[in-house]
Amino acid sequence: MKNDIDNILWRLSKSPFRSKFHLKEKDIAYVHDKGLDKIREHTYDFINKRLAGKVIINDGKQTPMKGHPTFIAQHATATCCRGCLYKWHKIPQDTDLTKEQIDYIVNVIMTWIEREVNGKN
Prior knowledge:
By secondary structure, this protein is an all-alpha fold. The protein has helices at residues 2-13, 25-34, 36-50, 69-76, 82-89, 99-117.
């Protein structure tokens, strides 16, 4: 799975839109303050509440552009809506997400966050 994540993050880094997203100093400080385990918990919660369902009334508008490191990461990793999940990750739109798909999405987001915090993006 690591190679899959490395590959998709490399492809996303070539997108003019996706590559413009980066964590600000306050976001990095928030990650340091809360810790990666807590950020991962938040990320699971956001994905389960905002993306996991078969039908999402406000799909394409459910992920804010600021306010939490996960939100920034979702836009950077094309995990912000079901349309982007399909376009970039080939995760079908018209079905509930599986546990494996949710785990994959969270791992993509967390890998991006960890790279941002460590200055590797």
